[in-house]
Amino acid sequence: MSTTRKITHLCGFFAVKVDSGFINGGDPQKESKSDISMPKFLMYNGNETPYISAQSWRHYWRKIFNQIYRKELNYNPKLQKLENLNFFKAEHDLFGYFEGFDQSVSSDAMGNVNVSQVRLSPVAITQLHPISIISQQKKTHGYFNKDDAFVHLEGDSTPLPYNSKFYNAVMVSVFNFNIEKFGFYRNILDRQELYEKTSSKAIKDGIIKEIEKDNFELTDNKIVKKLRIKSLIKSLLFFGGGAKLSQYLCDLTPKIIIVGCMNGGNPIFGDVLEETPLGTQINIEKLKMKIKSVNKILKAPLFIGVRNGFLINYQKLYEMSLEDEWKNQIILSSPGQLISFLEEVNVI
Fold first, then answer.
1. In sequence order, what are the beta bridge partners of 128?
2. d(CA 57, CA 23)
3. Distances (CA, A) of 181 to 141, 186, 190, 216
4. pLDDT at 110
5. Model's pTM, two decimal places?
């Protein structure tokens, strides 16, 4: 683990345990003479395997983030003014935006080009998908079960059949947060994050400063960035939402979260979880190999937060954390301690 350069990225993954869930609805299927409500699925090894699209869970995450961030702002009224400004408010900064214009600009090098204000989100994620199953036995984990029910309409004595499929799975999503980009805006050729009129007014109003040509940063970015990272992580720890909650309510808070504080985006830890006939485990040898492979860009101990009882080989992971070779390279705790850890390593 190197400590000579700054932390630019938070890379890792989190996993949720879906028990009898229907989180992200897809197209209905025909079976016999009836329609069946289906969650989204992909084909894996010839089986229908459920997944939660990145767009779907990102939508719920964004809503929770906004709720948490507004509460955090109550302790810092000076920053509340940014939340009334498009492009500079927290959700636009972290989750991106697009605004098109009818007008065009001239460039000697490129001629006339259409201009829009586009910000690619510095918060990169994957879909939530079931973890690998290392067993030759046929398992229902990660696959579908069917619920046959009836809808009773008021004033009609004939119940209507209603069928839906649901699933049980431990699902994982890999993330890569480019925290160096939080509160920072850049214009490159026709990819403009801030149109000239937008940036000029914001500079005049003291919202941003131009640190070099076509590169801008929020004026109070040191304070803003830490508050936004804290709220982003906290909203992930309180993650929830989904379709058909009245029938298939699930606890979607992370059961394990691994975060590496890095100088460079390399989210390589997402495949260290495995599903066995006895339950979920972490592949410790693979974890060791991956820590070694990113040792030069890992700027703090790898944070591993695990809910009690989730991993069947937690004791072996705990013993690894006490070994001389690894005791300074990993922090083993609970997911809720991630905020405190990031404060200790001066990320927030």
1. 52
2. 9
3. 39, 9, 19, 11
4. 44
5. 0.86
